[in-house]
Amino acid sequence: MDLLYWFTPWEESAPVFIATVVVAALFLRGRARSNPRFQQKLYFWTGLAFIYLVSHTQFDYYAEHQFFIHRLQHLVLHHLGPFLVVLSSPVATLRAGMPEAGQRACRLIAEWKPVQYLLSALCNPVVAVTLFCGLIGFWLLPSVHFTAMIDWRLYRLMNWSMFINGLFFWGIVLHRGPIFSVRLSPGSRIAMMLAVIPPQIVIGAMIFFASSELYPIYTICGRAIGGLGAIADQQIGGIILWIHGAMMSAIGILIVVRGELMQQKH
Amino acid sequence: MECFVSGRFILALMIAFAAFALNACISQKPWHVEEVTGHLPDLKFSLTADNGRLVTPTTYEGHLLLMYFGFTNCDSECPVSMARLARVMQLLGNDANRVRILFVTLDPGRDTPQVLHRYVTQFDPDRAIGLTGTTSDIERLTKQYRAAYRPRSKIGEAGGIDHGDAVYIFDSQGRARLLATSADSDEHLAQDVRRLLETAH
After folding, report:
1. Where on the phi/psi map is residue B69: left (φ > 0), alpha (ψ -120 to 50), or beta?
2. Alpha carbon of B192 to those of A182, A216, B46, B167: distances in Å?
3. How many Cα atoms occupy the beta-carbon half-sphere of B156 within 13 Å?
4. Helix axes A152-174, A125-139, angle to 10 degrees
5. DSSP state letter for B146
6. Which of A164, A180, B29, B35 is the most buried (most CB within 10 A)?
7. Are residues A77 and A166 in contact, defined by beta-carbon separation less than 8 angstroms?
8. How do B64-70 and B167-170 pair as beta strands?
9. Are strands B54-55 and B47-49 parallel, antiparallel or unpaired?
10. Which residues of B touch A10 (CB under 8 A)?
């Protein structure tokens, strides 16, 4: 099997392709003007590559047909990918890469009152934490999950909502400066990251300890990897949410603490 | 005044929501198997039937279709599922004449129309039809219905093909309506099929 085949999309999605190309082009263009550090570039490209690879290659087939791979896909879309992209602080570079008209349009949208209200509401710590955990729980409700996995439109909505929510959440908690004129103290940002841990542990543990098959859709439509039983697949998926989901918070907290200590030193 | 209006507005919204919820409860269709109306696309294919003719869904217009993905060398799920569908047809009695079983092969290399014909007639000589096509035709169809199928996979070459056990049920207009699995009993499946036949008119 040729290597290139693995990089062809399982299901072509114009929005995923266009969004990736546009963001990559903006970063490349802005690079010359804003001159990001090597670390920033590394984080940005790794994050973007991860997000693209899990959503627009043959990996997507396995995510559709194996529960634990679906959880890995969401770990990248909701946690790792947005985490790395936010860590690269790409806004300045992306803005520098935008043509004048694009920058003006962005300013106009950002200054529009309803958008400001919406953004400040979404930046509220309680709202952000609830949305982050609520979305994980919602898409994992057995009946919702069943429908999302058979309906390609809902499947895409699920993946996009996870990615956008991840970008938003990690953007708020990892970014030091004010976000949409809301400034959160390092303490509340750490508290937010701590607050998302227990719900993920509880949902992950509930899936891990379930004695019956919670997501029969994978058995109905067939599993991608033969020889792995339904319960084993479910348990690995539960562990991924339980441990790895919570792990990202721990890394995030260390980064915020380090950032604060570095600032105090200067 | 403003407070009064918003209070009334909220009350109206709550009533509307309650009415919507009540309506949803009343009109909920208690199918025995999973209902998928609106979630899966309408049936669309162009494949070769076991009689060697090129067929499309319009060939079976007016018939309720039970579609199953499998392969003739399969020694576990496929014969069990096909025997089950044959029993459902028996349970349907005369109504079964308005139903067709479509057995779509996942192994088009080995399952020629002749092989398929021999296979499906063992289960139901009149109403079961074997379908084959190119690998890409079959891949397109499985992809549409989210059925696991890797034609290029090495596991497939070894002999066995991992696949689901779903029976996709389409109404006489080719719309995907129900999704049955091996967990559903034959009687329940027959009841749902009969109900779907009744609502067709």
Report:
1. beta
2. 55, 20, 27, 13
3. 17
4. 150
5. T
6. B35
7. yes
8. antiparallel
9. antiparallel
10. 143
Residue with tokens 């084959």: B132
The CA R_g of chain B, rounded to the nearest whole Å, is 21
Q: Which residues are CB-neighbours of B51 under 8 A, at least 6 positions away?
A: B113, B117
Give the SS3 label for residue A226.
Answer: coil
Picking from B28, B31, B33, B34 by the largest number of A CB atoms within 10 A of its own CB, the best residue to mutate is B34
Cα–Cα dist A245/A176, whole Å: 22
CA angle B109, B111, B113 (to 5 degrees): 120
A51 Cβ neighbours under 8 A, 6+ residues apart: A20, A76, A77, A81, A82, A85, A163
Cα–Cα distance measured from residue B67 to residue B178, given in angstroms and rounded to the nearest whole number: 11
Query: Does A151 sit within 8 Å of B39, measured CB to CB?
Result: yes
- Concatenated DSSP letters of B21-55: HHHHHHH----SSEE-TTTSPPP---EEETTS-EE
Residue A5 contacts B where some CB pair is shorter than 8 Å: yes
Report DSSP letters for B77-112, one per residue: HHHHHHHHHHHHHHHHGGGGGGEEEEEEES-TTT--
pLDDT at A255: 95
Structure tokens at A142: 């057995």
Residue B137, chain A, CB below 8 Å: the answer is: no
Torsion of CA A152, A157, A158, A161, to 10 degrees: 160
Contacts of B148 in chain A (CB under 8 A): 65, 221-224
Q: In degrees rounded to 5, what are phi and psi of residue A153? A: -70, -45
Instruction: State chain A's mean pLDDT as an integer.
Output: 93
In 3D space, the residue among A136, A218, A166, A150 whose CA is nearest the CA of residue A50 turns out to be A166
For B130-176, the pLDDT digits (tens) are 999 999 999 999 999 999 987 655 544 555 677 888 999 999 999 99
Give contacts of A11 with chain B, Cβ < 8 Å. 143
Burial group, residue A144, by CB count within 10 angstroms (0-12, 13-18, 19+)? middle
CA distance A71 to A84: 18
Q: Would you call B165 and A5 a contact, using CB atoms and an 8 Å cutoff?
A: no
Determine the Cα angle at A138 with ends A129 and A109, to 5°.
55
pLDDT in tens, B70-125: 999 988 889 999 999 999 999 999 999 999 999 999 999 999 999 999 999 999 99
Edge-first strand order for the sheet with B54-55 is B34-35, B176-180, B167-170, B64-70, B99-105, B128-132, B47-49, B54-55
Interface residue B18 vs chain A (CB under 8 A):
no
Q: How many residues does chain A have?
A: 266
Backbone angle region of A155, left / alpha / beta, with phi > 0 → left and psi within -120 to 50 → alpha: alpha
CA end-to-end distance (rounded Å), chain A: 55
